[in-house]
Write a structure and sequence with these properties.
The chain has a two-stranded antiparallel sheet with strand order 1-2. The protein contains eleven helices and two strands. It is mostly helical.
Length: 262
């Protein structure tokens, strides 16, 4: 007597179809990436350059149509001290995740600095709006899970441009789920407040990059190559610091100086 499947349970045939579909999708992705790797401008660190350039063009289009105008309006309408307070608030949340990653990397100095920064700025800096810790000489040692994976031996892999998120590497892309979990904004309730904070953070990050974008547009003959090379160099330096191969530095070093207050 042939047993009947349990009502509501997927049949073995249905599971096989889904498995074949998933395998087909992975094979299609592999073929696309393999095709990308055969581009004429391929470099050792950027085997997916044709794809990356196309994704960069897409991101630039979205940025020009939406992100940059909103960030420009935000910068023009919001006084500089308020914008600084917003940036400090989100940076303080980031210091909490940096503490976790510095701890996972067995980096005692960075972990202690991140711990005391969060405590001081949260308690004495109005929830992080004021960066009291920096005034006290406690440097920020920003770390993420991608750098933690590098600390424990995972190579960065090829350069990869992600939709909307922009420059990355294969290792940093694999680390994104953990970094998202470590983003304290994602744990805010209600959802409406979480979405508002997320939107504010995106606008704040883009507004802070407006000046750098103008410099890049004026200075770079090939904006894509310049951005890629600088990104990979900075990530390599920070990975070397996480691995103890270079002295720890303030992670804000190398950034453009802050704009004057208006």
């Amino acid at each position: 007597m042939t047993p009947h499947p349990t009502p509501g349970a997927p049949s073995s045939r249905h599971r096989n179809v889904k498995a074949r579909a998933a395998t087909g999708a992975l094979l299609a992705l592999a073929l696309v990436l393999a095709g990308c790797a055969s581009g004429p401008h391929t470099s050792p660190n950027d085997p997916f350059e044709p794809y990356n350039r196309s994704m960069t063009q897409f991101n630039d289009t979205v940025d020009a149509a939406l992100l940059k105008p909103v960030a420009t309006a935000y910068q023009q309408a919001t006084p500089a001290p308020v914008r600084t307070g917003v940036s400090n608030f989100f940076a303080n949340l980031g210091d909490a995740w940096s503490f976790v990653n510095n701890t996972l990397q067995l980096n005692a100095e960075g972990a202690l600095s991140s711990f005391f920064r969060v405590q001081i700025n949260t308690l004495m800096g109005l929830g992080g709006v004021l960066d009291v810790a920096s005034e006290m000489g406690i440097e920020r040692h920003k770390q993420d899970f991608g750098l933690t994976l590098g600390r424990w031996g995972m190579p960065p892999g090829p350069y990869l441009v992600l939709p909307i998120l922009g420059p990355s590497t294969v290792r940093d892309t694999l680390a994104l789920p953990a970094d998202n979990r470590g983003n304290l904004v994602r744990h805010v309730d209600p959802v409406s407040a979480r979405n508002s904070l997320t939107a504010l953070r995106v606008v704040d990050v883009r507004a802070n990059l407006l000046r750098a974008g103008e410099v890049l547009d004026d200075a770079a003959l090939d904006k894509y190559s310049f951005t890629r090379d600088v990104f990979l160099q900075v990530r390599s330096q920070r990975a070397a610091e996480a691995a103890g191969k270079q002295p720890l530095q303030n992670s804000d070093s190398g950034m453009l100086p802050p704009e004057p207050e208006q």
